[in-house]
Amino acid sequence: MPALERWWIIWRADSQDKLSGTIVEAQSRPPLPQDARSIEGPLPTKAAAQKEVKRIEGAKPVTGGGPLNPVIVAGSAAGITDPLGLFAIGHWIGKLVSGLTDVHMWISLGWMALGISLFLAGLALLLKLPQRGAAIGARLAAA
User: What is the SS3 assignment for 102-127?
Assistant: First the structure.
């Protein structure tokens, strides 16, 4: 029985950041070479891999000057690896700081605090009215 063919594309960029793909055959995901940006695959046939390379290499640059690159693997674009997951922690710290400095969040919290305080004041008044009514009735009955 023949071995299952799996085709992978190793993407590299030149000095002008133009992508070029190299097609390799491997049973499992090949290791990312030092000069490569990312690996795409597995693709079922070599023809499918060639078609994908032709599609990406012929793509027009996106506005902003960079090439169209839908196959970036997180961290491998700049050659930086993140074994401890610190990039994700930094992302969430940034989200927290961004949320804390958002003026609209504080305005919403102010409205909620006002609503809660008015609700509690109304509830306290509602609970004290029967006691005051009984005290006034007792004074009137004694007079």
Answer: CHHHHHHHHHHHHHHHHHHHHHHHHH
> Starting from the edge strand earliest in sequence, which strands make up the sheet with 19-25, in order?
19-25, 7-13, 36-43
Domain of residue 66 covers 7-81
Helix (H, G, I), strand (E, B) or coil at 55: helix
Q: Is 112 found in the same domain as 71?
A: no
Split into its structural domains, the chain has a count of 2
In a domain, 46, yes or no: yes
**Which amino acid makes up residue 20?**
S
Q: Considering the domain boundaries, does residue 2 fall inside one?
A: no
* Whether residues 60 and 18 fall in one domain: yes
Per-residue pLDDT of the chain (143 residues; tens, 9 = 90+): 455 668 888 888 877 777 888 888 888 888 888 888 888 878 888 888 888 888 887 765 544 444 444 444 444 444 556 666 677 787 888 888 888 888 999 999 999 999 999 999 999 888 888 788 788 888 888 86
Q: Give yes or no: residues 50 and 116 share one domain.
A: no
User: How far apart are the C-alpha atoms of 48 and 50, rounded to whole Å?
Assistant: 5
